């Protein structure tokens, strides 16, 4: 599987300036607003933040995978952001996050190989 098949360089920001989790997720959703796979970036944002309230997606080692299945998304896609200052994501290891992969998938999608592999 090639990650490049699920995103494009226009959905990558290597110099995220936002300093908190909500702002970073919002910025990445705005990037995905440019995607033909995302019909409503605000709805995607709400879905990702609601998912984030269940349990953190900060998996440790400076990485977070905020994600959601959403009616606002037509196909699996993701945005990537990098920050140098680190952001508190409530990560499992307590460390700040510097690499963020925001993943959106259609709500009606059953766990597909593509979605599960991307999450992995």
Description:
This protein has 120 residues and is α/β, with parallel strands linked by helices. The chain is 28% helix and 27% strand. Strands 1, 2, 3, 4, 5 and 6 form a 6-stranded mixed β-sheet that branches. The chain is globular, with a radius of gyration of 13 Å.
Describe the protein's topology.
Layout: E1 12-13, H1 21-32, H2 41-54, E2 58-60, E3 63-64, E4 67-70, E5 77-87, E6 97-106, H3 113-119
Parallel strand pairs: 1-5, 3-6, 4-6
Antiparallel strand pairs: 2-3, 5-6
Helix pairs in contact: 1-2
Comma- or semicolon-separated keywords:
120 residues; alpha/beta; six-stranded mixed beta sheet; 3 helices; 28% helix
What are the segments in which pLDDT stays under 50 over at least 5 consecutive residues? none
Largest sheet features: 6 strands, mixed
- List SSEs in N-to-C order: EHHEEEEEH
Terminal CA distance reads 11 Å
Mean pLDDT: 87
Helix content: 25-40%
């Amino acid at each position: 599987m090639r990650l490049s098949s699920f995103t494009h360089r226009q959905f990558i920001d290597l110099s995220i300036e936002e300093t908190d989790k909500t702002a970073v997720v919002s910025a990445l959703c705005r990037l995905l607003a440019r995607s033909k796979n995302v019909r409503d970036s605000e709805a995607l944002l709400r879905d990702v933040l609601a998912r984030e309230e269940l349990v953190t997606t900060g998996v440790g080692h400076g990485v977070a995978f905020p994600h959601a299945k959403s009616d606002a998304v037509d196909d699996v896609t993701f945005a990537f952001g990098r920050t140098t200052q680190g952001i508190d994501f409530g990560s499992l290891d307590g460390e700040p996050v510097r690499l963020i992969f925001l993943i959106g998938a259609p709500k009606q999608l059953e766990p597909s190989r593509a979605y599960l592999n991307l999450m992995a």
